[in-house]
Design a protein that fits this description.
2 copies of one chain form a homodimer.
Chain A: H1 8-15, H2 19-27, H3 34-47, H4 53-60, E1 65-70, H5 76-90, E2 95-100, H6 105-117, E3 122-125, H7 132-141, E4 144-147, E5 157-161, H8 163-176, E6 182-185, H9 192-207, E7 215-218, H10 223-235, E8 241-244, H11 247-262, E9 270-275, H12 277-282, E10 289-291, H13 294-310, E11 318-321, E12 325-326
Parallel strand pairs in A: 1-2, 1-3, 3-4, 4-5, 5-11, 6-7, 6-8, 8-9, 9-10
Antiparallel strand pairs in A: 10-12
Chain A binds a DNA duplex (16 and 16 nucleotides) through α2 and α4.
DNA sequence: TTGAAAGCGCTAACAC
DNA sequence: GTGTTAGCGCTTTCAA
């Protein structure tokens, strides 16, 4: 049989004191007679007593748990963010309840509800974008911190990247090199990060007089379809540049490209995109792109979380992180055929 | 101000019934007068009432939370396992509290303690191997499920792979191809999986009369050191084969190798190792190695968890998963120089 | 410095 | 079918 856990009562009885005294000993909220302390300590060791956080939370309304809703923890970006977050919050004795939304609005909804049931202290979410009203509603009672994907109409803490500007800049750079037939691998359709990036792309294209039919948007999201598209792109010569807006996909692309190179091909396709340090490292030629630095992102996020926990009613903080642009030479210059 | 959450009392008062009736309505534990049900439902919607799981758990001793202690969630293997686990447990309304031990015994210990405080229903752990006694102790009161790393002296549910046998087989295969100078990239030093694999390796080596000085063990664990070693290995010609015992490292190796190939080198080093499907996919030549299939692993694990939750005092189940051996040609045959 | 007792939000046994 | 009440394990006021 599984051993029953001792309760504060057991300790009190064994040590010959009241439960209040035991509680004070555990929480060090009052000075106690050393002799009494000793007896309590002995009792705790005797029973292997471990306080019940649940009961504590019920009184103190302080769970020390934060709910995290990410689209997918197997995405290296989110895994890295989670890991850093966990490390930074460890000393604060805060637990992380990790949920994968899988870009599914219904699942996200269900998880939000369950997290509220658990009375978590806060919810960090990279939203699917399908439940904006619900997020606002939740935020009325439990702090919601929106991460990575700007939700313009929600008044809650937010931390996201300069998606529009960075993508505009990157596209501009590609166009400046003379490319006109540009393929664009878009992110999850409801993600606002993906939307802003796409808007930045479109603006740059339009400003340079490139008509929409020269934009080749790749919509695939799942790995095999996406890779297949990349392979095809690498083998054709209509489209001269590819912009990949997620590190995960960029990674797939680099693998496909490498394999082709090893088979003796020499793909001419220029490419650029959003990458973490990892993609910059594994790319055999200096990569041109936007660097998503997880460490910076995660530590900013941690500050926002801790601040919100300390001041539940403090002013909402919406911050945009400036992702640095790194020039490499994966975007080669081609002939400028401006009419 | 953050809105206060409504309690069952608010609902009862508003609906003009007792809290017991509200509880019955929520849990559907008794038939209620439809008219009363309607009033309760209205009250719930009016207050946006969400039951407090904490208070529930305090009574029912059923948290519906499982603690997971993994060495590192940025390791693609563990991330994948987590994701599948999460999906399979979602319907059972079970939450996962994810902790990274970071191969640190002290951190693992602290997390175990904190999980006990939270009164989680069970703990799934890929142990560092530094706290065997503690794990046994914990298991007396809270089900511990040991995953991926066999702990021979602990009587608790375990699920691990045939590490000794598979590595013995793989090494034997390498030796059969004529290799005698074999480098071996070893896993985390306290991980029993790493230990068993190493033992299997050593046995095969010894049985083939290869003396220890021909085994070149690579101890580095962190990414940059490890990659550096791989680079050096790829450029020398003393050692003819490399056995990499973790998918993560194998991934690093493949990247280094690719980069070298692209620079025009033609590394002669034969290689093999433990890989997930991903590494088999990205390797440009058919890989010889042991396949760690996360789906199989995770679904077996789920069954063990669910079974344990249902029967806390049921018989302990220790199971070994048979990892399949895949023959490719990354281990090339070399001259047999048997004296 | 310590104890008695109320109560956190809920479930369930018992009574009507 | 519904209400009353005890109590889950703990914190915290109030008294002593």
């Amino acid at each position: 049989m599984k051993k029953e856990k001792a309760t504060i009562k057991d300790i009190a009885k064994y040590a010959g004191v009241s439960i209040a005294t035991v509680s004070r000993y555990i929480n060090k909220t009052r000075n106690l007679n050393p002799e009494v302390s000793g007896r309590i300590q002995a009792a705790i060791e005797h029973f292997n007593y471990i306080p019940n956080d649940n009961a504590r939370a019920l009184k103190s309304r302080n769970e020390r748990i934060i709910g995290i809703i990410f689209p997918d923890i197997t995405n290296a970006f989110f895994a890295k963010i989670f890991k850093i977050l966990e490390e930074l919050l460890f000393d604060h004795k805060i637990f992380l309840l990790l949920c994968n939304s899988n870009e599914d609005g219904e699942k996200e909804k269900e998880y939000l509800y369950r997290l509220l049931q658990k009375r978590v202290d806060a919810i960090v979410i990279a939203p699917t974008g399908l439940n904006p009203d619900l997020l606002s509603e939740v935020n009325k009672s439990t702090p919601v911190i929106i991460f990575d994907r700007n939700q313009p109409n929600i008044i809650a803490d937010q931390l996201y990247a300069n998606d529009f500007d960075s993508c505009y800049q990157l596209t501009q750079y590609i166009l400046d090199r003379g490319h006109r037939e540009v393929a664009y691998a878009i992110g999850a359709e409801n993600s606002t990060a993906a939307q802003f990036r796409y808007a930045g792309f479109q603006k740059a294209m339009a400003e340079n007089g490139v008509s929409p039919e020269h934009c080749h948007v790749l919509y695939s999201q799942d790995e095999s379809a996406c890779r297949q598209e990349f392979r095809e792109l690498l083998l054709q010569d209509q489209i001269s540049a590819l912009l990949i807006t997620s590190p995960k996909k960029l990674n797939w692309f680099l693998i496909e490209r490498n394999q082709l190179c090893l088979k003796g091909h020499n793909p001419m396709l220029a490419f650029a995109g959003y990458a973490t340090q990892n993609e910059f490292d594994i790319c055999d030629i200096p990569l041109t792109g936007i660097l998503q630095k997880e460490e910076v992102y995660a530590s900013r996020l941690t500050k926002i979380i801790l601040n919100r926990l300390e001041h539940p009613n403090g002013k909402v903080r919406i911050s945009e992180l400036n992702l640095p642009f790194r020039k490499g030479n994966s975007i080669s210059r081609i002939d400028l055929r401006k009419d």
